[in-house]
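Pilot study result, target chain (485 residues):
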Amino acid sequence: MTEKNTADPVQGGVPAGSGGTAVPAGGHVCVAGVGVSGPPVVRALLARGLRVTVVNSTDDERARAAAEGLRAAGAGVVLGSDELPEGAALVVTSPGWRPDAPLLAAAARAGVEVIGDVELAWRLKPAEQVWLAVTGTNGKTTTVRMLEAMLRADGRNALAVGNVGTPIIDAVLPDASGAVPDVLAVELSSFQLHWSESLRPHAAAVLNVAPDHLDWHGGFDAYAEAKGKVYAPGTIRVANTADEVSVRLAAAGDASAPLVGFGLGTPRPGELGVVEDLLVDRAFTADRRSTAEELASLSDVRPAAPHQVANALAAAALARAAGAAPGAVRAGLAAFGPEPHRIAPVAEVGGVLYVDDSKATNTHAAAASLSAYEPVVWIAGGLLKGAEVGDLVRAAAPRLRAAVLLGRDRDLLRKALEEHAPGTAVAEVASTGAEAMTEVVAEAARLAEPGDTVLLAPAAASMDMFPDYNVRGERFAEAVLALPR
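Predicted structure:
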């Protein structure tokens, strides 16, 4: 990872709108979808005096409730339609809409540009606002929140945006006082990157890439390619030295831009890494060949699981790329609190630790979580979304005391355990109702021994049994706290 680096931070940002077609002044914009990203996009467009029509393919109670607020704001709303509004000069789509959705396909045929909310925000942002971008299959939210904390510790007016509470479009427009954040820590999904063309972050990291959302992208190569778009021309490339795809995507980026590696081993020049119990920087020092900057201790990372340390190093690399002082990394980590349902200890009962990592919704995330504990009673299952679980089970087998399986695809996990971890005790819970998690936790408690960890790391999505992974984790915690002491 020593292709090219820089001791001095490269100054960030390009003029707003310089990378793509401008938002049409006074024109007609179609917003696709009334979901989470739709309303803030509509507000931003209306604030610029544009005519806005929102089109949503469904016409249900939830859509009608959202439409009422959008109409009150001044937008036109058409429900139960896939038609492109007449005269629309631009379509801003919700990230999850596939390119072959009828409305977007109609726009393509008509020669109308389709962009996402991130691309729109980039075109509208102040030229001086710096973006630091984070993508990857797992760890994005944790990393941008760590990055936000580091930047604030450095005295910056920084904000984490994306799937962390603040819509990105709201962070590029002046607030009531006329101010906007100086620096954004931007979480980007593969969907958002697919719909972005002119995006040019100051620095960007691809944390890791593992199979996910393959049905949307049509295959792993297309999914990885979407992630790689974050390494835009002029963008400082931050890559995970332990992830082959991250390294490959960074190498394929702009060769004239600095390349910075991060990993859990001793760093080479141009990298951030770990020496004994210290996080150190050999990328943004005055002499990276002979000196290193101490950034923090492993004890400053909570919890100090390997993947969490890697996230901290990625955040530190981006903060340092923006000129943050070494001490801001430690101070930021001290101020950082992990998000709920991300490798979060719930309680210790009878000498057994219960840990909630409901956010481990794919095999890559579950593997990282399992690597942090031993021995483990593993709670897994749900919607595997076509993922292959053999490699996950094979790698985890030496750590497993037992497994408790739930959800629609639990039989696939059971077969993998039978093949790759034949000595592991397995219990299955067929219930899917409100009390299912209580039964799951009771089975795990029965199988666990003092010193074990009962780990909820499902490796699967939750929607077969729960509204989302948050509710799944909440039900797990409630069941654990109800165990007899």
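One observation from the pilot: The radius of gyration is 23 Å. A full batch analysis is planned for the follow-on phase.
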